[in-house]
Specification:
AaeA-lik-b-barrel; OB fold (Dihydrolipoamide Acetyltransferase, E2P); alpha+beta; about 290 residues; MFP_Efflux_Pump; coiled coil; four-stranded antiparallel sheet; Efflux RND transporter periplasmic adaptor subunit; five-stranded antiparallel sheet; single chain; Elongation Factor Tu (Ef-tu), domain 3; 14 strands; Four Helix Bundle (Hemerythrin (Met), subunit A)
C-alpha cells in the first residue's frame, strides 16, 4: 500500500498480520501542508472570480458605449445624403440665376460639414469597438484555478489511506513519524475477498478443459482437506526455452535434447468460499479439474 502523496506518517492504525476491512483507515499522512495548499488555491480562485466580475461589468459598459457610438453613424450618413441631394438640386439652378452663389456655397459647406461629421462618427464607433476588452483570459484563469483547487482537495483527501478490500496486512516495515514517499509501498494487503489457485497442466492434459468447469483444489499442507473451485481461465502462452532472441538474433542451442517434455500451461481456478485459515499466497496445492 503506497501513498499517493509524500509526507510524514502521523497515524499508523494497523499492525503486521492484522485483518482489515474495506475502507478501514490504514494510516494518515501529515495533512497540514496539504490543507494550507488547498486554502491558498481556494483564495486564488476567489480573487480571480472577483477580478472576473469587475472585468465583466467594465466590458458590459464598454459594449454599451460602443453601441451608442455606433448608433450615431446612421444619423450622420443621413445628414450627408441630404446635403448631397440638396447640392445636386441647386447646382443646375445656379446657371439660370434661380439661386445665388451664396446659397450654392452654403450647400457645398453643408456637404463638407456632413462628411466631416460622418468620418468623426465612424472613427468614434471604431474606437469604442476596439476599446472593448476580452474576458477570455480571465475566464481561462478561473477554469485553471478550479482545476488546481480540485487537485489540492484530492491531495488532501488521499492523505488518509484506506483499505481497498478486505484483507490481511503483511510485510509492514514502517512506524508512525517516519517519512513516506509517494508511490513507495509501506506494506502489502493480501486480498481475502477473492482467492485463486493456479495449476500448471501439461499441454497433453488441456484437451477438454474449459472455463466454468468444476475443480477441486487440495492443499499440500492440509492433508485430506480441499476447496471447491471454478475454472476461470486458461493461459494463452508461456515463454519458450528456444526461439527467443538476443540482441536482435535468434537464440538456438548447440546441444540437442532427444527427450521432449510436454510444456505446461497455467490454468486459473477461482476458489469458492475457502476457509480463511486454509489459504495463503504462495501455498502449494494440487488442482483436479472435473471434465
Amino acid at each position: 500500500m503506497a501513498p499517493d502523496v509524500s509526507g510524514r506518517v502521523t497515524k499508523l492504525a494497523v499492525r503486521d498480520n492484522q485483518r482489515v476491512h474495506r475502507d478501514e483507515v490504514l494510516y494518515v499522512i501529515d495533512q497540514e501542508p496539504y490543507r494550507y495548499a488547498r486554502d491558498q488555491t481556494l483564495a486564488q480562485l476567489h480573487n480571480l472570480q472577483a477580478q472576473l466580475a469587475i472585468e465583466t461589468t467594465q466590458v458590459e459598459s464598454q459594449v454599451s458605449h460602443a453601441g451608442a457610438s455606433r448608433s450615431g453613424v446612421p444619423g450622420a450618413q443621413a445628414r450627408l445624403d441630404l446635403a448631397q441631394r440638396t447640392l445636386a438640386r441647386l447646382t443646375p439652378l445656379e446657371r439660370n440665376g434661380f439661386v445665388t452663389v451664396e446659397q450654392l456655397d452654403q450647400a457645398r459647406t453643408e456637404v463638407a460639414t456632413a462628411k466631416a461629421a460622418l468620418d468623426e462618427a465612424q472613427q468614434a464607433a471604431m474606437g469604442a469597438r476596439q476599446a472593448v476588452r476580452s474576458i477570455a483570459p480571465l475566464e481561462a484563469a478561473v477554469a485553471g484555478a478550479h482545476s488546481a483547487l480540485s487537485l489540492a482537495e484530492r491531495n488532501l483527501r488521499v492523505t488518509v489511506v484506506r483499505a481497498p478490500c478486505d484483507g490481511i496486512v503483511t510485510a509492514l516495515d514502517v512506524s508512525a513519524g517516519e517519512y513516506a514517499v509517494a508511490g513507495r509501498p509501506l506494506f502489502t494487503i493480501v486480498n481475502t475477498e477473492e482467492w485463486w489457485a493456479v495449476g500448471n497442466f501439461r499441454e497433453t492434459q488441456l484437451a477438454g478443459t474449459q472455463t466454468g468447469q468444476n475443480a477441486e483444489v487440495y492443499l499440500v499442507g492440509m492433508t485430506g482437506r480441499h476447496v471447491h473451485g471454478i475454472v476461470d481461465s486458461l493461459n494463452a502462452g508461456v515463454l519458450p526455452d528456444e526461439g527467443t532472441t538476443a540482441d536482435g538474433l535468434p537464440r538456438v542451442p548447440r546441444s540437442l535434447n532427444w527427450v521432449r517434455i510436454a510444456q505446461r500451461f497455467p490454468v486459473r481456478v477461482k476458489l469458492i468460499d475457502p476457509p480463511p485459515d486454509l489459504v495463503r499466497i504462495g501455498e502449494t496445492v494440487s488442482v483436479v479439474i472435473d471434465r
